[in-house]
Amino acid sequence: MIDQIDIDSEWFKELSEYPLVIAGPCSAESENQLVETAKYLAKNFKVNVFRAGLWKPRTRPGSFEGVGEIGLAWLKKVKQETGLKIITELARADHLDMILEAGVDMIWIGARTVANPFAIEEIASRLKEVDIPVFVKNPLHPDPSLWLGALERINKAGIRRLAAIHRGFYPFEKSDLRHIPKWEIPIDLMIKCPGLPMICDPSHIAGNRELIPAIAQRAMDLHMDGLMVEVHPDPVNALSDAKQQLDFKDFDHFMKNLEFRTDSFKAGEIINLLGQYRSQIDSVDAQILELLAQRMEVIDKIGGYKREHQVAILQLERWTEILRTRGSLAGELGLDDVFIQKLLDLIHQESIRIQSYPQSLRK
Ligand code: PEP
Ligand code: MN
Predict the structure, then answer these.
(1) Interval 239-250: pLDDT, tens
(2) Residue 351, helix vs strand vs coil
(3) Pocket of ligand 1 contains residue 53 by CB under 6 Å
């Protein structure tokens, strides 16, 4: 099935030196803001493509939903005055004509749209009539097939200049990041579709300026093919994603400090499969530990509650129930029964230790 993704392997190499850098504000807000940002970014020789969202699909009503069509003229001006290539989000199939008419060079499909196969199908059927490079973001929830499915649908529409954007996944776990990277998912896609360029969007993963450099560096270390970074002249007053946009100075600093692994990079190839698998394991292990920490936090709370209400720490029926339900889930997941019993025992012992003493007495 995956073999059927048919990618033009040359277009991406021709687009830029390694890595591809897409930068620009989350949203177009005014002509001035766009032109000022683009002129600044054009001076940074590493920036190849200018981004700005015109129609912003938002999770909650009442947030800034974008300037819409009027922003296309501003993007056109950016292109004329800076020579940068332009990318914007295609949120609805019926926006495609005006986007093309304005001379936009490429489009991205946003995380919320990718989650809806009907919307993707509609977009794909419009794309049959045109040829434009398409960047497909991962959906908000960590479902690799939804991401792959969107890529396949668009590819079937005849789009061969295709790339993926890793922008992280909605975190149900506690996290300092706005979206958890789950690096194993983009790596899996890189392994399955070796010709497919993978771009990292550290801005939407981080959700705050400070964490962007570390995420971007990780993406470069994993040999991802490029970055999409949000840059705004006055981020604090940005109309969308104010916490995660870099100002000009921070962007320059960030780019200067980023280490590009040009030595071992070969466009479109997985350099070191063993390394990619190890990176997947690193990412999954980090998530296991984060989840364990989260479990122990709840355990601490239940310990306090039990002390307050003088409830015994160990309730045998509850423990038997845990063993039964986890055992059967583990079976469904193909995990070894004996291993899981041992693991649950260990977790249980630690949970009892935590509940036995308030945090101040614990060592
Ligand atoms: C964006 O790039 O500004 C955006 C809205 O992205 P996503 O679809 O990844 O949330
Ligand atoms: Mn944004």
Answers:
(1) 999 999 999 999
(2) helix
(3) yes
The per-residue pLDDT for 263 is: 53
In sequence order, what DSSP letters do the residues of 273-341 get, joined into one string?
Answer: HHHHHHHHHHHHHHHHHHHHHHHHHHHHHHHHHHHHTT--S--HHHHHHHHHHHHHHHHHTT--HHHHH
- How close is the Cα of 15 to the center of ligand 1, in Å? 22
Give pLDDT tens digits for 34-54: 999 999 999 987 999 999 999
Q: Percent of the chain scored above 90 by pLDDT? A: 75
Contact 41, 84 (CB under 8 A): yes
- Model pLDDT for residues 75-132, shown as the tens digit of each residue: 999 999 999 999 999 999 999 999 999 999 999 999 999 999 999 999 999 999 999 9
Distance CA 25, CA 132 (A): 22
Element (DSSP H or E) covering residue 246: none
For residue 112, give the ligand 1 atom closest to its CA. 8
d(Cα 155, Cα 149) in Å, to the nearest integer?
Answer: 10
Q: In degrees, to the nearest 5, what angle opens at C-alpha 150 toward C-alphas 145 and 156?
A: 120
Peptide bond into 202 cis (omega under 30): no
Give the nearest ligand 1 atom to 203 CA: 2
% of the chain exceeding 70 in pLDDT? 95
Quote the CA–CA distance of 100 and 97 in Å, as a whole number: 5
Which residue, judged by its Cα, is nearest atom 1 of ligand 1?
26
What does pTM read for this prediction? Answer: 0.82
As a whole number of angstroms, the distance between CA 269 and CA 271 comes to 6
State the ligand closest to the CA atom of 59.
Answer: 1
Which residues have a beta carbon within 5 Å of ligand 2, which is an ion? 26, 241
